[in-house]
Structure formats: C-alpha cells, structure tokens
Amino acid sequence: METALFSPSSLFADSDGNSTDEEFTDSSHQDFVERKHQFPGMELLVREFYFHELNANLLWPGTFAFAEWLVEHRSWLEGRRTLELGSGTGALAIFLHKSFKLDITTSDYDDKAIEENIAHNCQANGISPALPHLKHTWGDSFPISNPHWDLIIASDILLYVKQYPNLIKTLTFLLRAYTPEVADSEPRDCQQHDLVSALPRPAFLMSWRRRIGKEDELLFFSGCGEAGLEVNHLGSRVYCIKPKERRDE
C-alpha cells in the first residue's frame, strides 16, 4: 500500500482555493510554551509547540466549542470506547477523560514529538499513566485489524483539504471494520430531531470552527457519500457520520 506521507504544503488547497496555510511559519525548532486553558468546569495546563511542521502546534478555538457541546450531550459519551483523530496536544481527550472518565485513545500522525507532548500534557494534568496513543497516518494500513472503538471524534481536522481522501479512507475502515468487544445495544439513528437518543455504534462525531470554503466542505461530504457513509448535521457545526444502511447502498 502506498504510504500517505505528506508535507505541510500538501495539506491545503491550491493557492487559488478557499483554504490557506496561514498557520504555518518558517521555523526549524520545536520549542514549547505552556498555557492555561479554561474548559467547562476545569482549567488545564497545556504545553504547545511554538511551531510544528504538521500543525499540531496549538490548541485551536474549535476545541472549546466542541467540548461545551459534548458536555451538553454527556449521555451520548457514557460507556463508549472512543478514539480521537488528530489529537494534537491531547487537550480534548484529557478533558473528556478527567470529566467523564471516558475510555479514550489519542491518535495523530506518526510523529514521536506529538506522542511525547500528549504524554507530557497527560502527566501535567494528573493523568498517569498517559492515555493510550495510536500513531497513524491517514490512508495508511491501520495498525489494528479489528478496531473496537464505537465512537470516533475529531475537532477542526477539515483544514487539510488535500488529505480528505486519506482521511475518508481511514474513517471508512474504522466504521466498517468495527468489532465490538461486547454486545452493543441496538443502534439508533442520530437525527437532528432526536437529541435524546444514543448515537449509533459505531459513529464519528466531528466538529470544526476553522474557516474553510463551501466547496471544500462539499468535497469532504461528497467523498463520504461515495465511500458509503451517511452524514447528519446535529447543529452547532457538529456532524455525525456513520455507515449507510445496506439497503441504502
């Protein structure tokens, strides 16, 4: 299988597209800065890169909006085995684990510095040992053949326009190859009008607040549809993505 390696310049739309690479700076070092960030009901100390070539450097504002939404829908998370894609600093996973005792695994590009920084942030916020972490480059063969996570989450990962096909490939595998460790209850749809029902198993919850163009959004959603995935908007720029029912394919 072709390795889905990429450089910073390959993450974004072309120069005439709707997305930009304004977050990247010309720097060769990976010094850190520690900042206190206020999450719902708690303050976390998060070490961030001054610069990281894969843009895992900062805690983006959309993380806080997604955290607030998840708090409002706490019942949807209870008892779920969760994988976060594009964990970056690990702050959202740390918050969810500390708030709800959520069984959550962090994941990001196969990069030692990212993994070590997430472990550092876990320790700095009283989580020892660190949360389990999975190094995975979108589009590559997944390191676990029978993934058992029934909930996948991600915040602000649609900035990487040229990686949409690889992201969809990984996401499709995780949703289609899901293997429950124990018998799950009968899944129920996550329609916008049914906010009290549980999410289906498996499901992908995605939120983003970063500026991307409508054409880029359509590109991602169309790619999901072509891969046999169903997209439902839950409001507040939060989306639930799940495998289509076989009768719909």
From TrEMBL:
The record's section on Gene3D superfamilies has: Vaccinia Virus protein VP39
Annotated stretches, region: Disordered: 1-26
Which superkingdom? Answer: Eukaryota
Point to the regions of Polar residues compositional bias: 1-18
Pfam families per the UniProt record, alphabetical: Methyltransf_16 (PF10294)
Q: Where are the transmembrane segments?
A: none
Name the UniProt record assigns to this protein: Methyltransferase small domain-containing protein
What species is given as this protein's source? Cuscuta campestris
